[in-house]
Amino acid sequence: MGLEDEKKKGETSGETSEKEIGLSRKNSASSLSPTEDDEDDEHKKLELGPMIALREQLEKDKDDESLRRWKEQLIGVVDLEDVGETPDPVVKILDLTVRSPDREEMVLTIPEDGLPNPKGPWFTVKEGSKYTLVFNFRVTNNIVSGLRYNNTVWKTGVKVDSTKAMLGTFSPQAEPYQHVMPEETTPSGIFARGTYSARTKFIDDDNKCYLDLNYTFDIRKNWQ
Fold first, then answer.
1. Among residues 223, 151, 220, which one has the least CA distance to residue 181?
2. How far from the centroid of its chain's Cα atoms is residue 40's Cα?
3. Which fold has domain 54-220?
């Protein structure tokens, strides 16, 4: 979700809004104008070596105690049971939890087909309520670099919110990871109530998408 309180009627600002509903920020002239270094960087291509399976990297020099410890400092202790023979990481988003002090936690399991509830809203939240989103996910096979969360929300076809958050880099492990988003507050008022559509994506630095989820949710007077 990621909605902010609607701006009060009559409030004006000279800043450029970063979101349709959200905080605003001013950009300096220097941040808007490209520099020579920026233009040079666009023409430079970063040449990377071939990707190597994590299992192969871990088994290299495994008898060298100093190298083993150095690798553990970089990626942590990795269980080889969670590491495959291919270099591609595998990320599975297990569930989304909505936490609010006004009610019990809502744990929403991610369906295998990517369709949470094709016949209606996936969940309902109360207007003007504080909430926190929590993601549980598991990483196997290889390190995933720069995993991030993108979420876009529309109401009646108009985009009202866009959120992007960097989750981080994660190594394979048996236990799921958990990421807690900052607390937010749902908008309130007659114009805030209704049905919203949303699209949630989890992608990494290589723009590999691990989840592309489309769903709807409602904002009502009361929790349901």
1. 151
2. 31
3. Coagulation Factor XIII; Chain A, domain 1 (2.70.50)
How far apart are alpha carbons 102 and 16 in whole angstroms?
Answer: 34
pTM to 2 decimal places: 0.66
Per-residue confidence (pLDDT) for residue 21, from 0 to 100: 37
Beta-strand relationship, 209-220 and 123-126: parallel
Is 173 in a helix, a strand, or coil?
A: coil
Q: Where exactly are the structural domains of the chain?
A: 54-220
Task: Please list the residues that pair with 217 across neighbouring strands.
Answer: 123, 196
Element (H, E) at 66: helix 65-75
> Does residue 57 contact residue 89 with C-beta atoms inside 8 Å?
no
Q: Which amino acid is at 184?
A: E
Is-contact 91 208, C-beta < 8 A?
A: no
User: Which 8-state DSSP code applies to residue 148?
Assistant: E
Residues in contact with 110: Cβ distance below 8 Å, sequence separation at least 6, in sequence order: 93, 94, 95, 96, 116, 211, 213
Cα-based angle 140, 146, 149 (whole degrees, multiple of 5): 90
Q: What are 13's two structure tokens?
A: 């600002």
Give the integer Cα–Cα distance in Å for 39 and 55. 39
pLDDT in tens, 46-79: 454 455 555 555 555 566 566 556 555 555 555 5
